[in-house]
Design a protein that fits this description.
Distance between the termini: 22 Å
Order of helices and strands: EEEEHE
Number of strands: 5
Structural class: mainly beta
Length: about 90
């Protein structure tokens, strides 16, 4: 799982039938300080996230398994909304 921030929504009136009814959000990976650290992606929202929220997402085959239709063409899925990030032991 990874941490990202929702920066927008995607509206697609024509899409794979297995994605009908899904909410698609533009998400950018962020580090633990909340700074962007990678390219934006489109993720299926499973938890009701909104623009500006930090989220937990997963990628690849794990993402498609998290969705109810395991054969849907999904590369990224949002599985949680971050309330807080608490840093622990310093990694050196």
């Amino acid at each position: 799982m990874r941490i990202g921030q929702v920066i927008g929504t995607v509206v697609a009136t024509r899409k794979d039938e297995r994605l009908v009814g899904t909410k698609l959000l533009v998400t950018v990976p962020v580090d633990t300080k909340g700074k962007p650290c990678g390219p934006a992606m489109v993720a299926v929202d499973m938890v009701g996230a909104g623009i500006g929220e930090q989220v937990i997402y997963t990628l690849g085959s794990v993402a498609s398994r998290a969705y109810s239709d395991r054969h849907a063409p999904i590369d990224a899925v949002i599985v949680g909304i971050v309330d807080a990030i608490e840093e622990g032991v310093d990694r050196q």
